[in-house]
Amino acid sequence: MMYLFTPVGLAALHAFATGSTLYAFDLDGTLAPIVADPAGIAIPDEVRRCLIQLNSMAPVAVITGRSRTDALNHLGFTPHCLVGNHGAEGLPGEDAADHDFIRLCQGWKEQLKLLLPDMPARGISLEDKGETIALHYRHAPDTGKARGSIVTAIARLTPAPRIVSGIFVENITPRDAPHKGEAVEILMRLRGCCRAIFVGDDVTDEDVFRLGNPTILGIRVGRDEESRAGYYLQGQHEMIRLLREMIALHERR
Fold it and tell me: Domain segments of the chain: what residues?
């Protein structure tokens, strides 16, 4: 990985920031700092102001693990594209598939009630996000044991889901549901964008970085040598600088 704010990194950013670029962002840990209680995230005012300005100049997409409704409550504005549930919710033209995913998750939810009947006692909480389910264990007295119980239960679900691991959370999604990488490519096609810049910080964002798509510039928030992103920011605090750079490029064009 290369630090973005170097001559080489900025040259790559300048080359990708054209009049036909999709600007796509994760939410938690990218647009908003990570906090202990996910319900308490807040996008810094200057980040939001820059996002709104960029959204008025170019197609902006937010692709998050949260549900669309939850994400909107935290964004404070409506981007051109808002995709929730790791890519499973909100892609244009996918309404029928969304309903199928919801029905599938309701079945898993009933199975999990039987497989993990004592979730509160183990410090496990189930979040029904519609098209996906999240099993949180941040507050478990023994997080390793709690995760083991969750993984064992998930392995017994039918039909088998796709597992998306996060920080103190195991997400389960329908195997047929698009992931974040597929969502970016679909949005590029639908919006007529020949290039995209995607910024993310989580293991779920690696679905974009792992594509190896030369028309997508991947930027990771925080350095991780195992990441497939080409460039990185030192931390979430550099989002303001990145957004200002994007805006300045469009203003010059």
Answer: 2-88+193-252, 95-173
pLDDT in tens, 5-42: 999 999 999 999 998 999 999 999 999 998 878 889 99
Give the pLDDT confidence of 39-53 residue by residue, as tens digits.
899 999 999 999 999
239-252 and 7-16 helices cross at what angle (nearest 10)?
50
Six-digit token pair at 200? 């993310």
Contacts of 123 (CB under 8 A, 6+ apart): 137, 139, 140, 141, 142, 143, 146
For 95-154, the pLDDT digits (tens) are: 778 889 999 999 999 999 999 999 999 999 999 999 999 999 999 999 999 999 999 999
The CA distances from residue 31 to 45, 123, 137, in Å, are 11, 28, 24
- Class of the 95-173 domain? alpha beta
d(CA 223, CA 138): 23
CA 58, CA 197: separation in Å to the nearest integer? 12
Q: Which CATH class is domain 2-88+193-252?
A: alpha beta
Which of the 8 DSSP states describes residue 160?
P
State the Cα–Cα distance between residues 76 and 136, nearest whole angstrom: 25
